[in-house]
């Protein structure tokens, strides 16, 4: 296991991305010592980004249309970002512009989430179908896959099934999660969400499950703004269908089938991916390493975006 050494945000101690976002330094650990990502609360400032939103479908989707957001030069190595349950592609907005300096970045919205279709019929394995359709649509079956939580499980299943996968990043996936924690999360996510009379109230009431620990108020608000939609009745709710959380999950694939380089990212305060479970997951994968982000919860890339960017760049750039 690797941890990234604790640092604090000080003038001159952090570099900055092309978009002005702070990037943590990457000191090497002493032999036999893990690396820890430390640091103070990241300050996210919304800013213009170069992106393209696109809807697409495929025969395998049986009429369902999906939305994807694209950043960067289409001629670069492809990197696909997969959000967690109840989220949407905009959960990557603060990271994608920096990653697009090196990659063709595509963030998918699974059906029942965001601006993708919300079909009436539900099917076990539909999110895997969505990822397969995206990779076929953009013509890159060997794309590097980065998935948070549920999106990590979809990426893991694809990497085990398709040996062409160039690389895999699993951000705080539920692995060996205590049964009580799993039940609580699924019960909360499957609850029929309330609607509100105004958009402002819906934004104010938007809640992260589990709660964020360190994310800036600006980042919270930006995600909430992108997560609210207006119903035909003129009330305001959220852009996901909670019925999907009532479906059983597919069995996890054999870890030995995942042959590509893999990075596992865990928040040290996560209630979802416990330390022993993270180490067991890393040990079961043929070519994996583990990084723990100090002070982050389950939503690691929101709590500590600068540290996650540093870990991603160190792992991903050599895979181009």
Structure notes:
- With 320 residues, the chain is α/β, with parallel strands linked by helices.
- It has one domain (6-319): 3-Layer(aba) Sandwich (Rossmann fold), CATH 3.40.50.
- It contains 9 helices and 14 strands.
- The strands form 3 sheets. Strands 1, 4, 5, 6, 7, 8, 9, 10, 13 and 14 form a 10-stranded mixed beta sheet that branches. Strands 2-3 form a two-stranded antiparallel ribbon. The protein has a two-stranded antiparallel ribbon with strand order 11-12.
- Helix 3 (150-161) links the parallel strand 9 (144-148) and strand 10 (168-171).
- The radius of gyration is 19 Å and the shape is globular.
- Residues 5-35 and 40-49 have low confidence and may be disordered.
Task: Give me some keywords for this one.
14 strands; about 25% helix; alpha/beta; about 325 residues; 10-stranded mixed β-sheet
């Amino acid at each position: 296991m690797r941890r990234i050494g604790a640092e604090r945000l000080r003038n001159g101690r952090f570099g900055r991305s092309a978009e002005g976002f702070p990037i943590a330094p990457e000191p090497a650990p002493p032999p036999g010592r893990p690396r820890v990502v430390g640091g103070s609360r990241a300050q996210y400032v919304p800013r213009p980004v170069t992106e393209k939103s696109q809807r697409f479908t495929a025969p395998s989707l049986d009429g369902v249309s999906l939305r994807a957001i694209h950043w960067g030069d289409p001629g670069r190595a492809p990197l696909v970002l997969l959000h967690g349950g109840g989220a949407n592609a905009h959960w990557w907005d603060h990271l994608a512009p920096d990653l697009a300096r090196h990659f063709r970045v595509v963030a998918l919205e699974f059906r029942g989430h965001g601006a993708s279709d919300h079909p009436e019929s539900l099917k076990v394995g539909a999110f895997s179908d969505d990822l397969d359709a995206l990779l076929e649509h953009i013509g890159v079956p060997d794309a590097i896959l980065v998935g948070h939580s549920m999106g990590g499980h979809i990426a893991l299943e694809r990497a085990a099934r398709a040996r062409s996968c160039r690389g895999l990043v699993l951000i705080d996936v539920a692995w060996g999660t205590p049964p009580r924690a799993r039940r609580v999360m699924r019960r909360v996510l499957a609850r029929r969400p309330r609607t509100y009379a105004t958009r402002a109230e819906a934004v104010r009431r938007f809640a992260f499950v589990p709660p964020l620990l360190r994310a800036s108020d600006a980042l919270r608000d930006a995600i909430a703004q992108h997560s609210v939609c207006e119903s035909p009745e003129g009330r305001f709710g959220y852009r996901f269908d909670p019925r999907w959380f009532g479906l059983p999950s597919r069995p996890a694939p054999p870890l030995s089938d995942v042959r590509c380089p893999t990075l596992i990212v865990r928040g040290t305060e996560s209630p979802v991916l416990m330390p022993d479970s993270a180490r067991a997951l890393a040990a079961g994968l043929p070519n994996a390493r583990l990084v723990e982000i100090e002070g982050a919860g389950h939503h690691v890339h929101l709590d500590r975006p600068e540290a996650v960017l540093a870990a991603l760049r160190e792992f991903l750039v050599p895979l181009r």
